[in-house]
Amino acid sequence: MTAVTGWLSSYALGSTSACPAPNNTFLKCELATIKPAYAFIMYGTNDLDHYSSASDLTAFRNNLNTIVDNNIAAGTIPVLSTIPPRLDNPTAGSRVAMYNQVIVEVAAAKEIPLWNFWKTSSLSGMINQGMDGDGIHPNVYNGADGAV
Description:
The chain is built from seven helices and three strands; from the N terminus they run ααβααβααβα. By secondary structure, it is mainly alpha-helical. A three-stranded parallel beta sheet has the order 1-2-3.
């Protein structure tokens, strides 16, 4: 339910009628339905496109903390991922480091695993920094498939 192309971090916390309370957010419903042992969490790429002020960065941090807390409460081990470079838009690309810093700080504060996807994609010799031709999605992006 939450592995959806184009989503902001806040969308995962939005309400759904697919599950009754207290699992009536997209994230809680998904966790209750599939009961994963691990969740690889990558939000921020779309957040930075829509939000640019310091208060928006605080909102992203709060959303990420809530997402992590919901996973832990459900018995799922969250693994946060930094976001990849944004090669499509210099303005959005200039905010990647700020969002990745928040992701690193949340992982450290919650003492959970961190996958530094940005660092891996930024290694020397990585063709197009591992990004698809659109400059937003990791290569190879398959259109509407957010997660395959």
